[in-house]
Amino acid sequence: MTRFLTGQFSNPIRAAACAALAVTLAAACGGSEPGLARGKMLFDTCSPCHGSEGAGDQTLGAPAIAGGSTWYLTDQLLQFQGGVRGYHHTDAEGLRMRPMSRALFDDTGDIESVVEYVVSLPIPDPPATAEGGDVESGEEDYIALCANCHGRDGRGDETLQAPSMLHLSDWYIVSSMRKYRDGVRGAGGAGLGATMRAAVTGFDDERIDNVTAYIMTMQRLPRKAPAPPPPPLPPIDVDPAILPEGVTIAMVEEGQQIFNTTTGICFTCHLREGVGGPLAPNLTDTEWLNIDGEYEAIVRIIMDGVPEPIEYPGMMQERAGMPLTDEQVRAVAAYVFTLSR
Question: In principle, which of 50, 130, 164, 277 could form an S-S bond with 271, CB 3.0–4.6 Å?
C-alpha cells in the first residue's frame, strides 16, 4: 500500500498562526448567536487544514469531516480539548489539532455552531489512493473484529460511540488504525478507545491495508441511513434448579438484555450470546481462563475487570467500562453463568 506522509508537514509556525486566528475569530463571534452563520465564520480556522469544503488534506493528515455525524464531531472536539486525543508526542496531527480545539468554547456555542456548519457541508466521496490490500482477507478481519461496533455495513453506532467508516479517505483509515495499534491513540487504558486499540493490537501493516481495502468497498452506501436492527434474542430456557441461591430467571433475562445490547456492550468483544471471538473468549463452553466459572467469581471479574488478559488482546474494563449498578452486574453474571450450563 502507498506509504502515507501524514505528520511530515506539521509546521509549528503555521499551527501557531492558525491557533491565534482561531482565538481572534472566536472572540469576534462572541456577540453572535450560536448557529450556522457563526459556525461558518469559525470554520475559517479549520479550512487551512481540512479544506474549504471539509474534504480533508492528506499532506497535512487532516481527514474529511464534511457531512459527519453531529455526535461524533462534537465528541472528538471535546476529546481534543480534554487531552484524550492529541496527547502523544508522536501524534503530529493530533498535537496540531489540540490547540485549535481549545480556541472553541462549548459554553458559548462555538462547538455547537462549527459542528452544525460542518454537518451541513456536502458529504465527500474520496477516491481510493492506496495500492494493494486484499479485500477478501480484509472482510474476514472486519467482520470478526470491527463489525460488532462499526456495523456490518460500516454505518457506525452512536450508542457504542463507534463512528461511520463510510466516505473516509483510505490514508486516514490506515493512519488511524496504526495509531491505535502503536498506542498513539487509545492507550489511556479506559473507554472505547481502549477497546479499539485492543482490536488492532496484533495487526501488522498488511492486515491494516487489507481491512482498509475492504472498508473502501463500502463507500457508496448511504452514510446516515440507520443499519437494520439485529435479530431478536432467543427466549431464556434454563432449568431454575441449576441457578445459584438468590439468582432468578428474571435476573438471567435482565442479564441477557444487558450483555447483548449497548447497556453493557459485552457483546462487542464476547460476541452475541457469548460465543467468543478474536478479542475475548467463548463463554458458552466449560473452559475458564481467569476464574473457576462459579457465580460469585463471575460477579467479581465483571466488577474488577481483566486488565491483563491471559490469551486474548481485549482488556476487560471494570464493569465493562459502563455505569452498571451492582444489581446489573449480578444480572449479567447470572446470564453468563447459564451460558455454559
Answer: 277
Please count the structural domains in the chain: 3
The answer to whether 302 and 320 are in contact (CB under 8 A) is yes
- The domain spanning residue 154 has which CATH number? 1.10.760.10
Question: Tens digits of per-residue pLDDT, 155-211?
Answer: 888 888 899 998 899 999 999 999 999 999 987 655 677 778 888 888 999 999 999
Residue at 6 is within a domain: no
H or E stretch including 301? helix 295-304
Within a domain: 164: yes
Question: What DSSP line would sit under 162-220, residue for residue?
Answer: B---TT--HHHHHHHHHHHHTTSSSTTSSHHHHHHHHHHTT--HHHHHHHHHHHHTTTT
Identity of residue 239 = D
CB 70 within 8 A of CB 223: no
Range of the domain at 94: 12-120
Task: Provide the whole-model pTM.
Answer: 0.76
Q: CA quadruple 95, 100, 106, 112: dihedral positive or negative?
A: negative
- Measured from the Cβ of residue 179, the count of other Cβ atoms closer than 10 Å reads 23
